[in-house]
Write a sequence for this structure.
């Protein structure tokens, strides 16, 4: 079995109001020195067999087109075969 | 500067309809062998200075109470000092 972890985050230049709200709440609840918070998504995908060849290419394509919005988001993809 | 990454995922026994929808979409778009998809949240928190002592304890408490819902979600917290 292969486990694919795709982390999706807003591009640095895109405002993140959810992250901003979390940063404010952390500070109000007593956590000092909060510089910035960014909130993203994480997909954990379990696949039959190993991920290799064309299926890897398709997985990367879908991470960039289905799981994330390439206009405003970046993604990272890691595979544990 | 310390970077704290908090990953929040639904507990395994909690149904994840978003993940189920993503699993279906991946299959329809040609990805074979999808067993399961779980969708979670990722918080990337940048803090002034190093995270240690009481501030670490507070960060862990807030990850479990503010960033996640302990009734239905688990979290993992990693620190890069």
């Amino acid at each position: 079995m292969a486990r694919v972890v795709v982390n999706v985050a807003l591009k640095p230049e895109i405002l993140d109001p959810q992250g901003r709200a979390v940063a404010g709440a952390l500070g109000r609840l007593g956590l000092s020195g909060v510089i910035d918070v960014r909130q993203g998504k994480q997909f954990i995908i379990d696949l039959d067999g190993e991920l290799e060849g064309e299926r890897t290419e398709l997985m990367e394509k879908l991470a960039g087109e289905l799981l994330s919005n390439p206009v405003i988001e970046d993604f990272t993809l890691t595979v544990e075969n």
In short: The radius of gyration of chain B is 16 Å. Chain B has one domain: 2-80. Residues 19 and 38 of chain B are 5 Å apart (CA to CA).
